[in-house]
Amino acid sequence: MNIIEFRDVSKIYENGTAALKDINLVIKKGEFVFLVGPSGSGKSTFIKLLIKETPVTSGTIFVAGRNICILKSSKIPQLRRNIGCIFQDYKLLSDRTIFENIAFALEVIGKPNYIIKAQVPQVLKLVGLYSKMDSYPHQLSGGEQQRICIARAFVNRPPILLADEPTGNLDPATSESIMKLLSRINLIGTTVVMATHEKSIVNAMRRRVVEMEEGLIIRDQKRGVYGS
Amino acid sequence: MGFTAITTVAITLFIVGVFSVILFDVQSILNSIEGQVEIAVYLKDNISNDLKGYLENEIKKWPEVDSIAYVSKEQALEKFKVQNEGSDILKEIQGNPLPASFEIKLKDPQKVEQVALRFVDKDGKSIDGVDEVIYGKSYIRKLFSITAVAGTIALLIIIILILATMVLIYNTIRLSIYARRKEIEVMKLVGATNGYVRAPFLFEGFFEGFLGGGIAVVLLYLLNKFLLIKGETAIVETMHIKNLAILGSSNIILIAYFGIIIIGGLIGILSSGFALRRYLKV
Question: Which terminal Cβ of chain B has fewer Cβ within 10 Å, N or C?
Fold first, then answer.
């Protein structure tokens, strides 16, 4: 089943920058895909289009078989509930505890309290930070904060996880543990798309690699490595 | 949070309230005066019944005339006594010095001068049987146009003040959107609905407007209780005008209180709505 499909997708920003040029790409359910390429190659735009943070200029994008380009703005939240996102800068709320940060993601989509109380500890165990539930983000290391970010993205069990340079601020050893966590989440059946420009990680994982350059896909390889 | 905004709403709506009470009362007074006789035609004491009847019939035929009433000397004296009850002047009156008269009401008070001049001949003398014609009430028309102008100016001031309060609420909402931008970003990312993201800001705007309106009502209530009500009491005692904003039986002032609070809330919701449209694209 195609969970993500780009058909002739182009994105030209208002300032005239062509970030994506006629992209065609199919990602199957349960795949783990690396998007690689230098800064400005269109990786982030790819992710922004998927969560409809910005509209496509032309072409169509399907998520789980649905054309998201014709989605009414009132339906965008529903789309985003099915796509977890993690970032290089974590985007944790500094005035809330770890528990509250993750609970927040469930609260704002209207989940009742008993579900929050059950699911938050569960996902914290999954990322191995159950004991830090009552800490604040600044009391955690970068790697730990990234795990919390993953926990928050995954607590609602979305079928898709998008990661934009999740290891960008982390040292190699910590990055490796983050990749292990993402692999585990992928093994449960979650489709993972990760944008990165870190060679060692991509080479170690041996997963599908989609290489982009100046808005074009220049390589799409199963079990690939960073450089060709 | 939003202290300036709340204060401005309060001051603005307080001014709205004061203007409303004053303008309402002035209108009431003018309406009451306008309803009084517009032309009084005083007759000579020696006028013959024939001439009197002829005049009355003629006046009735004029298209401008709404009604005509004959007031005899005796009725005039009665009226005078009622109006000056308890005054020393009554003791000094001997006989009946008051003239009989026709009291004429017009369909269109603007024509008062035109009608009144028919009782005067080319040399400026009154026609036969008529002693004097009084129609000085045309100044009321002028008063009406003055209050209309005053009302328009008041309305303009109010609109400007309301716009100013809207800008202030707009700014406080913009600031709190900015202060909570990280939270908003996360909310959107995890799929909170637009309504869910917007509701707290709409509520904040509503609350600022509503609270400002409430403060304005309290201020207006105090002003009414300690100052304006005294003015109205004086108006009632001297002019016997019943339909006033505070003392009147129609509860105009309660409507004003409610109106002010509702306007406050609406101003708040509208302003934060504008701020959200501008700064909270989802």
Answer: N
> Which of A53, A101, A108, A161 has the most B C-beta neighbours within 10 Å, making it the best mutation to test the interface with B?
A108
| Structure tokens, A40 | 């400005």
Helix (H) / strand (E) element for A6: namely: strand A2-12
Distance CA B246, CA B231 (A): 10
Is A93 close to B185, i.e. CB distance below 8 A?
no
Other CB atoms within 10 Å distance of the CB of residue B209: 31
> Token digits for B143?
């008063």
Residues A181-226 pLDDT 10s = 999 999 999 999 999 988 889 999 899 999 999 999 999 988 888 8
**DSSP label at A53?**
S
A196: three-class secondary structure by DSSP: strand
pLDDT at position B138 over 70: no
pLDDT in tens, B171-201: 988 998 999 899 999 999 999 998 899 999 9
How many CA atoms lie within 13 Å of A52's alpha carbon, on the beta-carbon side? 26
DSSP B187-250: HHHTT--HHHHHHHHHHHHHHHHHHHHHHHHHHHHHHIIIIIHHHHHHHHHHH-----TTTSTT
Q: What angle, 0 to 180 degrees and rounded to 10, lies between the N-to-C axes of helices B194-223 and B181-189?
A: 140
CA angle B106, B112, B113 (to 5 degrees): 160
The pTM of this model reads 0.72
First vs last C-alpha separation in chain A: 28
Question: ipTM score here?
Answer: 0.87
Per DSSP (E only), the strands in chain B are 39-43, 65-71, 101-106, 130-134
Give the CA angle between residues B184, B189, B195 to the nearest 5°.
55
Contacts of B82 (CB under 8 A, 6+ apart): none
Phi first, then psi: give them for residue A221, nearest 5 degrees. -135, 130
Strands (E), A13-150: 18-28, 32-36, 58-63, 66-67, 83-87
List of chain B residues whose C-beta atoms are within 8 Å of the C-beta of residue A85: 189
User: Which chain B residues have a beta carbon less than 8 Å from that of A137?
Assistant: none
